[in-house]
Amino acid sequence: MSLMIERAKLIAKMVHIYEARRNGEPYYNHCERVADTVSENPEQKEFVICAAYLHDVFENAKNPNIIRHLILDYFPREVYHLVEVLTHDKNIDYNRYIELVCYNPYAFEIKIADMFDNTEDVNLPDKQKAKYRGACLLMISKDKIVPQILKDRLNL
């Protein structure tokens, strides 16, 4: 494994160290599963795998500006840009955020992996399920391919 991916893993672990998922598992496990899903493509670019590990760090960090500087200092700009695209600014409508993700094929791939992992939770709240259902419908309207298993989980 490359030094760059090791750094991404370390930063994700550091940011999510005291966080847990609804089921009690460490939050970092989610980041690892998203990165594993993205890296299943043998031709996947290293910077995309790094961004998959880091996809939630700006939203979850106690001081996101420190994390921004770490990423800018230790990763190519493409990693920083992807993490920014994948970060949902709460001042922006969720549908607008999804549209922006759809414009970037790498961000779209990571977001699909993120939603795939999140929807594996059988106790997914109805509100989040409805949000993801709307996101998938919007993605489909933008001619994006949403995996059938995700459609099935969201009853599309």
Sequence-ordered SSE layout with sheet pairings:
Elements: H1 3-15, H2 27-38, H3 46-54, H4 57-60, H5 64-74, H6 77-86, H7 94-102, H8 105-118, H9 126-141, H10 148-153
Structure write-up:
By secondary structure, the chain is an all-alpha fold. It has a single domain (3-153), classed as Orthogonal Bundle (Hypothetical protein af1432), CATH 1.10.3210. Helix content is 67%, strand content 0%. It contains 10 helices and no strands. It has helices at residues 3-15, 27-38, 46-54, 57-60, 64-74, 77-86, 94-102, 105-118, 126-141, 148-153. Helix 2 crosses helix 8. The mean pLDDT is 95.
Features:
globular; single chain; 67% helix; 10 helices; 156 residues; mainly alpha; Hypothetical protein af1432; 0% strand
